[in-house]
Amino acid sequence: MENQLLKGEDYSTVFEPLVYLANYVRDITGHEDQGHFMKFAMDAFHKAFSKANTKGRRLLDVGTGPSIHSVISASKHFDEIYLSDLSTRNLKALAEWKNGTLQHSFHTFFQYVVEKEGEGEDATSREEEMRNKVKDILFVDLLSDTWSELSSKQPYDAVVTSLCLEAVAPSTEIYKSIAGKIVALLKPGGVLVVTGVLGQSFYIVGDHEYYCLSIKEQDIKSVWTGCGLDIELWEWNPNNDRRPGKRSDYEGIFLMMARKK
Ligand SMILES: C[S@@+](CC[C@H](N)C(=O)[O-])C[C@H]1O[C@@H](n2cnc3c(N)ncnc32)[C@H](O)[C@@H]1O
Questions:
Q1: Ligand 1, from 72, 85, 181: best to mutate by most atoms within 8 Å of Cβ?
Q2: How high is the pLDDT of residue 3?
Q3: Ligand 1 centroid to 7 CA: how many Å?
């Protein structure tokens, strides 16, 4: 494994979407090194969107990567969904999911969500409906000054971002400036749902180690409240099996739902 942690453009040249999906988004149980990470995330997304009690036109997912699990719960509340990423490989994987040719199945995630919602919806129909709601797959470099593709569709009624900002921001200060720009895309009263890891300095995909900003709960909360959001939900799942040799060194995963004033 290389000494330097991969980031940025490495997601277009080295990162393997199908390996990431097989490692972390294989099914609702996730990877054995990640404990109940995925189940926690899917339960928390469901809780956040039930609690937010919001309906709207446009939903944006920031840094979707190759995985659409982060918008399944949200998808029933919005008419148009926009996915986004920096990586050409991930953008291609998302386009393949939309046209039904991606060599990876999210079926267990759809199944889990429709069962939790308890309205008798069929998982395959829900996936089809979500495909139709995805109106565009947008390029964004969160470290650049302008996010022209994302801003061309603003304002959004809700923004979701999963495991992305800490993989991007080189410092808490830059995390804060990215957060400010995300909040600017939201309508007043709009909802932000962020899920991420605390205290993680790297994570492994295949044979490669990727960068992560090790950040604390207090920093996350003060960044988002400082950007004009009221936090309405904070869910936390500690990693009780943190030891060397694992695929990452995360202390735990959080999900935060907050509303723009
Ligand atoms: C850990 S993955 C998270 C993917 C997905 N949201 C999930 O929950 O599994 C981090 C994502 O951040 C994206 N990324 C890295 N640098 C970026 C940047 N400067 N701007 C936008 N996205 C970036 C990567 O391409 C990758 O898809």
A1: 85
A2: 66
A3: 9
Q: Whole-angstrom Cα distance, residue 45 to residue 160? A: 10
Q: Is a pLDDT exceeding 70 seen at residue 1?
A: no
pTM of the model: 0.97
Q: Residue 34: is its pLDDT beyond 90?
A: no
Distance CA 159, CA 126 (A): 20
Enclosing H/E stretch for 133: helix 123-133
Mutate to test the pocket of ligand 1, among 40, 164, 171, 215 (most ligand atoms within 8 A of CB): 164
- How far is it, in rounded angstroms, from Cα 181 to Cα 145? 9
10-260 has which fold? Answer: Rossmann fold (3.40.50)
The yes-or-no verdict on residue 29 having pLDDT over 80 is no
Q: Which class for 111: exposed (0-12), middle (13-18), buried (19 or more C-beta within 10 A)?
A: middle
Asked if residue 257 lies in contact with residue 232, where contact means CB atoms within 8 angstroms, the answer is: yes
| Angle subtended by helix axes 88-99 and 17-24, to nearest 10 | 70
- Name the residue ranges covered by the structural domains of the chain: 10-260
d(CA 53, CA 259): 11
